[in-house]
Design brief:
The complex is a heterotrimer of chains A (447), B (278) and C (291).
Chain A: H1 2-17, E1 27-33, H2 37-57, E2 59-65, H3 71-80, E3 88-92, H4 96-99, H5 107-111, H6 127-131, E4 142-155, H7 156-164, H8 166-180, H9 194-203, E5 216-219, H10 226-238, H11 255-269, H12 282-290, E6 294-300, H13 303-307, E7 318-321, E8 325-326, E9 329-330, E10 332-341, H14 348-358, H15 361-369, H16 377-382, H17 388-400, E11 401-402, H18 408-423, H19 429-444
Parallel strand pairs in A: 1-2, 5-6, 10-11
Antiparallel strand pairs in A: 3-10, 4-6, 4-7, 4-10, 8-9
Helix pairs in contact in A: 2-15, 7-8, 8-9, 10-11, 10-18, 18-19
Chain B: H1 2-25, H2 27-36, H3 40-43, H4 57-64, H5 70-102, H6 106-118, H7 122-134, H8 141-166, H9 169-177, H10 182-211, H11 214-218, H12 227-232, H13 242-262, H14 264-272
Helix pairs in contact in B: 2-13, 4-13, 5-8, 5-10, 6-8, 8-10, 9-10, 10-14
Chain C: H1 2-38, E1 41-42, E2 52-53, H2 57-64, H3 66-97, H4 104-112, H5 119-129, H6 136-145, H7 156-181, H8 185-193, H9 198-226, H10 230-235, H11 247-257, H12 261-290
Antiparallel strand pairs in C: 1-2
Classes of the chains: A alpha/beta (447), B mainly alpha (278), C mainly alpha (291).
Chain lengths: 447, 278, 291
């Protein structure tokens, strides 16, 4: 009885999963890509290309999806093994410094009309994004496909009231004097400094303002992972710091980092951000905003579509501007994800022809309509009606956009550990920065 | 009469306590299944909803998402789990037989096998990854099968030792008298007698392989991705796609849940092997 | 002739062990030795095919790093607390189950359910289920914890302990329950006649009889908890900062997030050596049970 049950289960499982694969004559170019909204959009491109253009191009294309946690490891496996299994590697602008030795320079292919049968060039794409795919010596290695940037999200309904309600403004002044030591007046978020950001966070935290409609002022990503360090970097740049100095040397143990960390730490220490945000990231931030429990957040652009979706509880009540300014200027972090040709591919020309097509406006348009965020000025602007965040993207990145250098990916995991230690109060800011500086210097010595 | 009442009351009390314990320990499983039937809006509702209109969207999404082939991942898990279990059985039975009947070197191997069970598997991950990479074995079924077999062996071996110990030595001696060699003794005498034990041990092995995450993840890209690893693909570059992830977890747990129900006894025996004499 | 037979028998015994030996050597011993070798090199993705020999460089750096010591300490503390909690829970629940009641078989099976879901996947789902604003479990527990911020600094360690208890108490339970089933009912009845209550019977009759199994279970659980990885990795990734970073997370980050293979190998090997003594002791105890 038991045996037959087991057998039955196995048979059903096997039968239910056997897939039929169709034979095809055309070569299939294989490309590594990230699972998620990026790959959903890419799939639309692939379907279009394989149906309409495969004949003309002479090949089909398919994507291979690696999970987020191990994508670097797996790419590295293919790279160190010199594997020709895939023709295109996935990369991000900040990882290029680690990977470019395994990739093929692209420009010669683009300039060759026999390969680039579409006659495309890089001019349509946002220049900063294209430059993100250049090595330190300026060689172009790929196509930037998907752009990410940081916005300051705020609850427009609440800020509108703050800017018009005299009673709220009085409270704001009082709280800022108590907590920040200076009397401040509410300002339009587009004119904020990081101090305004903190003062407004205090105002919207119930602990300091029992009348606040939200429980917490802001949501600060605190989880120990690279991307949270990038969010902090907006503030670090504002105080005049950067991950590397002009000579390319790691640079964290400085006054700017202390100032920026004090801003970040204040949110956790004073309870301006939900307590569990120390282990929170993108997903947790969205839940907090949609629950109506926080008023502000420096957060990823991609969240806009979810937060302002028709069924979202805060639909129509959320707005974005560039992150606040520091004494040394105002910056909006951005990076791009994209693909480049593997040095080990046996079909480099096909891969290059595919990349050349990805550079066309047609591809960028399809990609944007399918939910991706192509760093293509005309496409983004044209679509800003149905995707307001695309318009903000062009605007914010155009004015305040700043990249991390291609070598940042090498130290990102170290940076986030020490930074997260500092802002969550596990280690003092001073000690964390010392440790960060030493660790990163040691690491960079190997590259 | 009073004693009877007291006894009934006692049973009810025990049942209530058991129920509370089961609810507490299964709260994760339960809320996960609940999540898989919630719409995205309901998943993100604050405070969380307990009553909602169930939707099947996430299940459909898991099977129809472009570039994502959950059917294939399930198939891979199945192939890998079955072959690993088969290998582990083929390796463990002769070893168990040798340990029980021949002594000598076997005790050292047994000790080493049990040591393996206690050592950090993570320590093996890096070298295994690099070695398999050198031999171009990454993203093949066999690479994962090799490692899963290794992880199934310790428990299988302990169980088979128990089973062989219970066998009367007389049958084997009779077979040997009839001129059977050791291979014949194993295949014609021992294995047929052990069949029920093999089935239950195999189920335990199957579950071990089916749920393994670290090595399956490190050793696969696309072709040999298992259901467990495939499920983790719903952790995307930014968001975790809660609904599809909950649905994928629910689907891929079904085989193991069924096995637990039909093979409870052997499961208990397998888990206690080593500390409690099987 | 007899001598020949004994020799023959030895060879057969050895041959039967050959497959398992091959497996252990190829997939456990060889990787371990390769890892040991790697720990003396500066090996990263950019030079993995031609790494630099640096002698004890990785070990020196490892023992100087405060991070490593803190990770070991976290793991040790976690292992002791988690194991104590789970032993107590496991024993109490086993005692409850150690009587006949209707639906017992199903109740045992249902108790094993939490073990069938991969801890990594369940850990990831726990991020939602423990979420401060939308997490069903966080809300259910807020009556006890007084907050829904289960992953904040104040609660994250307790949350990990709780989630791990859900996952692994069944293991303790099963061991203890099986052992209790082996205790003769006559002894229990005899002590009942003597007027011992349930608690006294547990302490004075059952415990002495199963103490050896309890000790082995405790040790095995302790070692497993010391190496906890997947659940923590999914829930907190060892953070904030290095606040919940145990030794396994320490190694994982070095190996797979920083591609510092040499350092990760040195840490792995150090860990293996540290665990060797308790493991050998435990194996000896277990072998005694088997023979």
């Amino acid at each position: 009885m038991k045996k037959s049950v087991i057998f039955l289960i196995l048979a059903v499982l096997l039968a239910s999963v056997i897939t039929v694969s169709a034979a095809d004559d055309l070569y299939t170019v294989r490309m590594v890509y990230w699972p998620g909204p990026e790959s959903d959009a890419m799939q639309v491109l692939l379907d279009y290309f394989n149906t309409n253009l495969a004949e003309k191009a002479g090949f089909k294309v398919e994507q291979e999806l690696f999970g987020r946690d191990q994508i670097m490891l797996k790419q590295e496996a293919l790279m160190t093994a010199g594997s020709s299994d895939v023709d295109l590697f996935f990369t991000a602008s900040r990882w290029l410094g680690k990977y470019y030795t395994f990739m093929e320079p692209l420009q010669p292919f683009l300039d060759n009309p026999e390969v680039n049968i579409w006659g495309s060039d890089t001019s349509g794409r946002i220049k900063a994004a294209v430059d993100g795919f250049r090595g330190l010596d300026g060689t172009l290695y790929g196509v930037p496909m998907d752009m990410s940037a940081h916005f300051l999200y705020y609850r427009s309904d609440l800020i509108d009231q703050l800017l018009s309600d005299p009673a709220w403004q009085e409270t704001f002044k009082k709280i800022s004097l108590e907590q920040m030591g200076v009397e401040m007046t509410p300002k339009n978020p587009d004119e904020w400094t990081w101090e305004d950001y903190l003062a407004t966070s205090f105002f919207f935290t119930k602990k300091y303002n029992p009348d606040s409609p939200t429980e917490y002022g802001n949501f600060t990503h605190g989880k120990v992972m690279g991307p949270t360090a990038f969010l902090w970097t907006n503030c670090y740049w504002g105080f005049g710091g950067d991950w590397f100095d002009a000579d390319g040397k790691v640079s964290f143990d400085n006054e700017a980092a202390v100032k920026a960390l004090e801003i970040w730490k204040a949110s956790f220490e004073k309870g301006l951000t939900p307590p569990s945000s120390v282990t929170g990231e993108y997903a947790e931030d969205n839940e907090a905003l949609m629950a109506g429990q926080v008023a502000l957040s420096v957060h990823w652009n991609a969240a806009y579509a979810t937060l302002d979706a028709a069924e979202s509880p805060i639909h129509g009540k959320i707005a974005v501007v560039a992150p606040p300014a520091g004494p040394n200027g105002r910056f909006a972090y951005n990076h791009t994800l994209g693909v480049g040709i593997s040095k080990f591919s046996n079909h480099k020309e096909e891969a290059a022809r595919w990349i050349a097509w990805l550079y066309t406006e047609e591809a960028a348009k399809l990609y944007g309509e399918a939910g991706g965020i192509p760093p293509h000025t005309t496409v983004l602007s044209a679509m800003s009606e149905q995707r307001p965040d695309f318009g903000y993207m062009v605007d914010i990145v155009g004015k305040y956009g700043k990249n991390l250098p291609p070598t940042a990916g090498i130290i990102e995991d170290m940076a986030c550990q020490d930074l997260s230690n500092a802002w969550s109060g596990v280690v003092s800011i001073e000690d964390a920065l010392k440790s960060l500086q030493t660790n990163c210097e040691d690491e960079m010595a190997n590259w | 009469m009073d004693a009877k009442k007291k006894r009934i009351f006692g049973v009810i009390l025990v049942l209530l306590l058991v129920l509370v314990i089961l609810i507490i320990f299964n709260i994760g499983v339960f809320t996960n299944v609940l999540t898989s039937f919630k719409s995205n809006v309901d998943i993100s509702s604050s405070p969380p909803k307990w009553i909602f209109k169930p939707v099947l969207d996430h299940y459909l999404h898991v099977f129809s998402k472009g570039g994502y082939n959950f059917g294939k991942y399930l198939q891979n898990s199945l192939i890998i789990a079955i072959i690993s279990t088969l290998f582990a059985t083929l390796v463990s039975i002769p070893a168990a037989y040798s340990i029980v009947r021949y002594h000598g070197l076997g005790d050292k191997i047994l000790g080493a096998t049990m040591l393996l069970r206690l050592m950090p598997a993570l320590a093996l991950a890096i070298p295994v990854f690099l070695i398999f990479n050198k031999f171009h074995l990454i993203d093949t079924h066999i690479a994962i099968i090799f490692m899963h077999t290794l992880f199934i062996i310790p428990t299988s071996l302990l169980l088979f030792i128990g089973y062989v110990q219970d066998l009367p030595i007389e049958i084997e001696e009779a077979a040997e008298m009839d001129g059977a060699n050791i291979i014949q003794v194993l295949t014609q005498v021992i294995i047929p007698v052990l069949r029920p034990g093999i089935a239950s041990t195999a189920i335990l092995g199957f579950i071990t392989s089916w749920n393994e995450y670290l090595f399956s993840g490190v050793l696969s890209f696309k072709n040999s991705v298992t259901a467990t690893v495939g499920t983790s693909f719903f952790i995307t570059s930014y968001q975790v796609e809660w609904g599809p992830m909950a649905a994928a977890i629910t689907i891929s747990s079904i085989p193991t849940v069924i096995f637990i129900f039909i093979a409870q006894k052997s499961l208990i025996r397998g888990m206690t092997a080593g500390s409690v004499k099987g | 002739m007899r001598r020949h037979r004994i020799k023959n028998k030895k060879i057969i015994g050895w041959l039967l062990l050959l497959p398992i030996t091959v497996w252990l050597v190829c997939f456990a011993l060889a990787p371990m030795l390769y890892g040991l070798r790697l720990s003396f090199y500066n090996a990263r993705i950019n030079n993995i095919n031609n790494p630099d020999f640096i002698g004890f460089g990785n070990y020196i750096k490892l023992f100087q790093s405060a991070d490593f010591g803190a990770s070991l300490l976290w793991s040790l503390r976690f292992a002791l607390i988690a194991t104590s909690i789970q032993m107590i829970l496991g024993i109490l629940i086993a005692q409850l189950y150690n009587r006949s009641f209707p639906g017992k078989s199903a109740a045992i099976t249902l108790f094993l359910l939490p073990m069938v879901i991969s801890p990594f996947l369940m850990g990831t789902m726990f991020r939602l289920l423990f979420n401060e604003f939308v997490g069903p479990i966080a809300y259910l527990l807020s009556g006890i914890t007084g907050t829904t911020a289960m992953l904040g600094v104040a609660f994250v360690n307790s949350t990990i302990l709780g989630a791990d208890a859900i996952n692994r108490t069944p293991f303790v339970f099963i061991n203890v329950y099986s052992a209790m089933q082996g205790v003769s009912q006559e002894l229990i009845e005899a002590s009942k006649v003597d007027g011992a209550n349930a608690f006294q019977r547990l302490i004075h009759v059952t415990f002495p009889l199963i103490s050896s199994i309890l000790w082995v279970t405790f040790l095995e659980k302790l070692l497993a908890s010391f190496l906890i990885f997947e659940l923590v990795f999914a829930l907190s990734a060892g953070g904030p900062g290095s606040f919940t970073q145990g030794i396994s997370i320490f190694i994982y980050r070095r190996a797979f997030q920083r591609s510092d293979y040499g350092m990760a190998s040195a840490a792995s090997f150090t860990l293996a050596v540290m665990l060797l003594i308790p493991s050998l002791y435990l194996v000896k105890r277990m072998l005694k049970g088997i023979k």
